Amino acid sequence: MKKSNIQGESNIGAIETPALILNLPVAKENMRRMFEFLGEKGIGLRPHVKVFRATPELALMQMEAGAVGMTCAKVSEAEVLAQAGITDILIANEIVGAHKINRLVNLAKDADIKVAVDNAVNVNEISQAATSAGITIGLLVEINIGHNRCGVAPFRPVLELTRHIHSKSGVRFMGLMGYDGHCTLKIDEAQRSPLSKKANKLLADNRYYIEDHGFTVQIVTGSGTFTYRFAADVAGLTEIQAGTYLLMDTEFQEHGIREFDCALSVLTEVISKPCYPDATRMVITDTGRKSLNDTYGNPIVKFPSGAVVKGLSDEHARIIINDGLDVPNIGDLIEIWVRDANGTINQFDKFYVIENEHLIDVWKIPLCGNHT
């Protein structure tokens, strides 16, 4: 068996590298902490599945723990969730075009599908397709609460679009959605609380504004792992869309989300020990940018502790072994923390699930790569 950090008997050394490792007890503890926190606040969790590409085992695990439903970004993710038996699904994105809307309608025949909208033309398209199929699709008006991406302007435009939805067949107004994405990596940690609370108060104020005009608002949803603590303090929100919290990555931790532990790592194997000058403490492993997303910089080595990723090529990593550590031999394993969970998971087709340093299962990632 390959030499690794695993003590005693283990089957992890038999995994072919590079491999995406999921530490299941760590993920379950992260889940417990999130549900405990939001439960005390009296607010629901609708986890976002885009980070783990709708892997059914992870979605079902959170549903069984008490999630109110699932959030996704694409029709393909909603299709995977529905096939897994999850019926309460929010697509937190505008779904445009006849082909995708037809897929949306087909999903809504067997599941409670809700989708975000921010313009009347899109409402009309969904209404026509749903009416023709004899079904009803729930719509949430997305509001721009400061992120300046999708969403209508607050108050009057929200009311106008809500009224438009009520005038159409095949669709049902369900509530409001807003995302405080401008309060994540882009700002200092100290600014996050006041900015997030301001943004989510704007979302809640729109709820009261709509209700004052006679409309029932069932769902007010938004936020994420970076801001769930602050959004949960804002009266008027009904649910949080945190997703990354479950598996985490070192980039989130370095930017202030320290209450959840990292459950993800990439296992890689030493394939070369350079013999050129000044490289006596360098090893080359069989993973690179095609496995480890480096949008936020080089990842951190988990084992051996103290080793450093000097750089990534497409298929190789240059790793420096610090003084005082034994230089690994060819065939030895090195474990690297995932720095960007979203970007890294997207490059793998399976999770190797471990518990107590033993491989217990392999979960297929159904939507690795680009899917509509």
Descriptive keywords:
alpha/beta, 8-stranded parallel beta sheet, single chain, TIM Barrel, Lyase, Ornithine Decarboxylase, Chain A, domain 1, 2 domains, 10 helices, 9-stranded mixed beta sheet, 17 strands, 372 residues
Structural topology:
Layout: E1 19-23, H1 24-41, E2 44-45, H2 56-65, E3 70-72, H3 75-83, E4 88-94, H4 98-108, E5 112-117, H5 120-133, E6 137-142, H6 156-166, E7 171-178, H7 189-212, E8 219-222, H8 228-231, E9 239-240, H9 250-254, E10 264-272, E11 282-285, E12 301-303, E13 308-312, E14 317-320, E15 333-337, H10 341-345, E16 350-355, E17 358-364
Parallel strand pairs: 1-16, 2-9, 3-4, 4-5, 5-6, 6-7, 7-8, 8-9
Antiparallel strand pairs: 1-10, 10-11, 10-15, 11-14, 12-15, 13-14, 16-17
Helix pairs in contact: 3-4, 4-5
Domain count: the total is: 2
* Ends apart, CA distance between termini: 41 Å
Number of helices in the DSSP assignment = 10
Catalogue the unreliable spans.
4-8
- Global mean pLDDT: 96
Structural class: alpha/beta
Radius of gyration: 23 Å
Give the CATH topology of the largest domain: TIM Barrel
Amount of beta strand: 15-25%
Supply the CATH superfamily name of the largest domain: Alanine racemase
CATH class label of the largest domain: Alpha Beta
Largest sheet: number of strands, sense, barrel closure: 9 strands, mixed
Number of distinct beta strands: 17
Q: Strand-and-helix sequence, N→C? A: EHEHEHEHEHEHEHEHEHEEEEEEHEE
Shape: elongated
CATH architecture title of the largest domain:
Alpha-Beta Barrel
Fraction of residues in H or I helices: 25-40%
